[in-house]
User: What shape does this take?
Amino acid sequence: MAIVLVILAAVFVGVLVVHAYRQFKIRQLRRMSENEYHTAVVVWEYGRLVKQQVESAVRRGTGVLDFSKITVPHSPGYRISLELIGGYFRVYAVPSRYKRTGRLSFLTDNTLSVRASDRAGQQATSEDAEYKGDES
Assistant: This one.
């Protein structure tokens, strides 16, 4: 009888561990999805701001950008960077911890089209598909 109780207890604990792990993975996937959606929005908004600043500098004829107005933003679980090449720019976002904080890498440029792909933590490219995600 004691052996049966030990076996039942072990099975019960095993089931609890499996359930807890599954719940952890579900929460992690949900958090990554939320991080990805939020980052896509931040990348687009930041790209829009940079585009406005570049166009304004061109209109003024100065060609000088006020970087206090286009500071690189923060997005949970992602590293965001800005690349300026004359009047052209690219905004990149890559997961801080690939497969933990996100899987998708993002890119936008003067077109303000947000591109995304699973690049294993590397930067997205202009050949990647347009991001169609939605927060759910």
In short: The CA atoms of residues 63 and 128 lie 30 Å apart. The mean pLDDT is 91. Residues 2-118 form one domain. The chain has one domain: 2-118.
